[in-house]
Write a structure and sequence with these properties.
single chain; mainly alpha; Rna Polymerase Sigma Factor, Chain: A; 2 domains; 9 helices; elongated; RNA_pol_sigma70_bacteroid; sigma factor activity
């Protein structure tokens, strides 16, 4: 590693934002292209690149100026990408499983019930207050934990729980107005 990079790392460890900005300028494009090479979309690659530099700043005290900052950034990038892939696989598997629970057979009547149920869920979602809907979608559709939702939205985990409880109450009320079979199916899917 060049002497200049070592100096930047030492300054970064001391909390020097100008050193961070310079490292960002030197490595942003490299990390971004690294992410794209893993098959990520431009938006995902940019988000992960930003996360890499956030982690660099947060863990700057653990840096070793004798070790390659380049390798360190790529290692962070690789770990974040792996975590992102795991999250996407989990989310996709959860959604497929949930859909398999309520997917009707080829029976026309069941198909109509399914469409009615789907419309009811979408309509109920639409009428939820914005933050409550956002919390519900992050939890039940994207599969995020309460802690992850709290961090993403900048609210406490208790607030996340309150929003979810209220959203579930809204769904139960809407479902109870329809029929018991629908309620049983969706309560298994949502709750």
């Amino acid at each position: 590693m060049s002497q200049h990079l070592k100096e930047l790392v030492c300054r970064l460890k001391e909390g020097d934002k100008m050193a961070f900005d310079e490292l960002y300028g030197l490595f942003h494009k490299k990390i971004y292209l690294f992410c794209l090479n893993y098959g990520l979309s431009q938006m995902d690659a940019e988000e992960i690149t930003q996360e890499v530099f956030v982690k660099l700043w947060l863990y700057r005290n653990t840096l070793d100026s004798e070790k390659s900052i380049n390798s360190y950034l790529y290692k962070i990038g690789k770990n974040v990408i792996i975590d992102e892939f795991k999250k996407k696989i989990k989310t996709q598997a959860t959604q497929e499983y949930q859909m398999s629970l309520i997917m009707p057979s080829n029976n026309v009547e069941e198909s109509m019930d399914y469409l009615d149920l789907k419309n009811l869920v979408e309509e109920t979602l639409m009428y939820l207050p914005e933050r409550r809907r956002e919390v519900f979608e992050l939890s039940r559709i994207k599969g995020l934990s309460h802690k992850e939702i709290a961090e993403e939205l900048g609210i406490s985990t208790k607030t996340v729980e309150n929003h979810l409880n209220l959203a579930l109450h809204n769904f139960r009320a809407a479902l109870q107005k329809t029929n018991v079979l629908c309620y049983a199916l969706v309560s298994y899917f949502i709750f």
